[in-house]
Each structure stands twice: as structure tokens, then as C-alpha cells.
Amino acid sequence: MGRYSAWEIIKQGLTGNKGWERAWRDPEPKARYDAIVVGGGGHGLATAYYLAKEHGIRNVAVLEKGWLGGGNAGRNTTIVRSNYMIPGNTEFYEFSLKIWENLSQDLNYNVMMSQRGQIVLFHSPAGRDAAARRLNIMRLNGIDGELLDREQVMKMVPHLDYSENARFHILGAAYQPRAGTARHDAVNWGFARAADQLGVDIIQNCEVTGFLHDATGAAIGVQTTRGEIRAGKIGVAVAGHSNRVAQMAGVGRLPIEAHALQAFVSEAVKPHLDYVIAFGGIGHFYISQSDKGGMVYGGDLDMYNNYAQRGMLPVVHDVHECVMQVMPSLGRARLLRSWGGIMDMSMDGSPIIDKSPVEGLYLNCGWCYGGFKATPASGFCFAHLIAKDEPHPAGAGLRLDRFRHGAMIDEKGAGATAWHH
Ligand SMILES: Cc1cc2nc3c(=O)[nH]c(=O)nc-3n(C[C@H](O)[C@H](O)[C@H](O)COP(=O)(O)OP(=O)(O)OC[C@H]3O[C@@H](n4cnc5c(N)ncnc54)[C@H](O)[C@@H]3O)c2cc1C
Fold first, then answer.
1. What pTM did the predictor assign?
2. What torsion do the CA atoms of 262, 156, 86, 391 make, to the nearest 10 degrees?
3. Which of 62, 238, 312 to mutate for ligand 1's pocket (most ligand atoms within 8 Å of CB)?
4. Residue bearing the CA closest to ligand 1, atom 49
């Protein structure tokens, strides 16, 4: 399969676009692989890609029960940022943002990374203090960030509600210029294509329904809807289904709950918003404009445990109240689409990339709302762990046993309450 290039586009354009090949193969599963990755979301695909590219482990299969991008990888609001302040998260998410900055070139696939900047509004003096503290910690760690006062925000985004009687009075914002958005489908397809080119088998419609163990209890393969597949090592990256798969594998219950999170897209409007806008603390809301013109936005979780890829009406109301309170200019835009994804909410709001208690089985989970931005670093660090049996330095803090030892990475300071993260 050839490389994508400007020359190839011209050549195909002149010959009726008939020569494009499949982006990745559709192979039958083999009886045995050196490594299997369960879950064909962004994280699973990135893991397979980096196993092949960084570690030369190419006899790898990604097993996906549905289609690539049918999970959260194709359902998120596409925000990419690294404004974290707790050790464990700080170095990991900045490592990820650095990979994002060159990802299109590396994959030879345009992931439409747009570093348009993220503006996180605050509405109270306490909110300003919290933003300043976060920005100071970020800057001490070499991460970009600026504190904006009200006038600066007004200049950058003039059409927010700055009126005196605004419900959420805007006092200023924390700004990360290098943050932005990327195209979620392109990220999945780019990793899939690049992994396939290195020899990885991407097997869709292949649900893992059980695990094979040897006499010592080590995991040596999986049962699937397409037969048994054996493997030297098995990585699990199934996001909202982590607990179900972990229990199937004999790991037991993980410190994770499944909750639905909804996303909304308006009809296309003319260029209206040059930044990602967000706020938390008073409500929870984030919005950006897609390249097609739709306003893409979301808010809080549905606050009950759920495995449905759709959401409930009170959250729809709540999110649209946030739209009206912050950007009343969108009041007459029509809602075009909405959907839900299943979040793997960990008890401290931070992820897990670690060996499991079952020999040969590795865990990648607990991504909560924020796993899209983590996709490249998650794959990079998980591949490192699977290949070398030791953590990559950027992901070394994301251990499973922190919940046993109490060494939480509680970015939000919300305690062990999954739905507050
Ligand atoms: C509405 C919404 C908005 C979001 N917004 C953002 C955002 O703006 N920024 C951000 O950083 N993050 C965001 N996220 C979070 C982010 O999308 C996820 O954390 C991340 O995508 C999870 O990793 P993944 O891509 O591998 O998951 P998924 O794409 O869910 O991949 C897991 C895959 O495993 C498969 N699977 C499950 N069980 C099995 C099985 N038994 N056998 C085989 N396959 C199986 C599933 O079908 C699925 O395809 C958002 C999520 C949602 C839903």
C-alpha cells in the first residue's frame, strides 16, 4: 500500500480516483499471535501500532467486537490538551500532546490536529486562584499556559455573555495555546492504516467472550465469536467495558464504574468560535466548532451506571442551559445530532496502564472523560509495558495498586466518587 501524498491525490484525480486501495486489510484471525490487543478503539490501535513500530513486535492482532471507532474513539468531542497538575498526569498528558504535534506526519494520515487553544473560564475569585495555581504548576513543568483577565477574554471571544446579570459572570480564564482539537475518526483510521502497514491484523466483528488460562492461571489466549486465538501477551483496552472484560479474565473487579457521557452537534453555522471554550466548577461545559461548521459540545455524565451508548433527558437540558448561559448567540441554532459513549470512570479520575494480577494480561483503562487526548501516549506507554514488562517513564505513575495504597492521582480533589471526576 502506497504512501498518501499530494502527488498521489493529483494522480488519482486525473485518473478518476479509481486507484485508491483499502486503507487496511480484512484478514481472517490466525490461531496464534505474539500479542493480542482487545479493543479496536484509539488506544488499542495505537498500542498495536507502537508495538510494531517501536518494538518490532509485528505478529499482533487487534480484536474489536464491532467496528473501528464505534466506541468512545468515534464519539468524543475531540478536545486535546495537557493542562494537568498532579504528578502522574502532568508528564503523561504533556508527553501525549507532544506526540499529537507530529502525529499526522508520523502516521502519514491527516488527523486534522488544530492547535486553536483552549480557554477555561472562571466565574469567581476562588476560581481565579485555582486557575492560577494550575497554570503555575503547569509552567513549572514546562507546559504552556496563561492567565487571562476579563478584558483579554472579551477581546479573544467577544460573543460570550459578559452582561452584568449573566448567570455565570465571566472574570477571566486559564488559556492553553497549544491545546485544541483533532478529528477523532481520522485518528482511528490513521493508526489502523499505519499499524496494518507494519503487519498488524485488525479484526473487526470479533468479540472476546472468554479467556484461556494455563495450569498456573496465566492468560494464554482468548475465546472469541470467531474462534479461539492464542497469544504470548494480551493487552486489554476496552474503555467502558473494562470491568466486564477484566472479570471475564479472572482479574476481578476494577476500581472503575461505567457511565454514559453525551455529545451534541448543532447544524453548521458560519465561522463563529476560534477556540475551545470550557468551564467547570459552576456546571460543566465545553464547546468548539468543527471544520464543517457544527458546534460540538457536551457537559456532565449521566449520573448513574450504564452501558448504553445514549443518554437521558435531564443532561440534555442541563447542557443546553449551559449553552444559553455562555453563548446566547447560539440560541436559534438547531441541534442536529447527539449520542452517548460509555466512560470508564476510575475512582480518582485518572487512568491505569499497568500489568494485571493475571500473568500475561495487561490493563489500559480508567480514561474517564479525557482519553481521546491521551490516545497516542496511552498506546506508546502500553506498548512499552507489554513489550518490556516495565512501565514507560511517562506512564509510570498510572499504576493499578495506587488504589490499594491510597496514592491517588486525584486531579480534581473530588475523592473516590467516580461521577464527580
Ligand atoms: C461524548 C464523549 C465526549 C468525550 N470528549 C472527550 C474530549 O473532548 N477529549 C478527550 O480527551 N476525551 C474525550 N472523551 C473520552 C474518550 O473518547 C475516551 O476516553 C477514549 O476514547 C477511550 O479510549 P478508546 O478510544 O480506546 O475507547 P473505545 O473507542 O471505546 O474503544 C474500546 C473498544 O473496545 C471494544 N470492546 C469492548 N468490549 C470488547 C470485547 N469483549 N471484545 C472486543 N472488543 C471489545 C469496543 O467495541 C470499543 O470499540 C469523550 C467521550 C465521550 C463518549
1. 0.97
2. 70
3. 238
4. 71
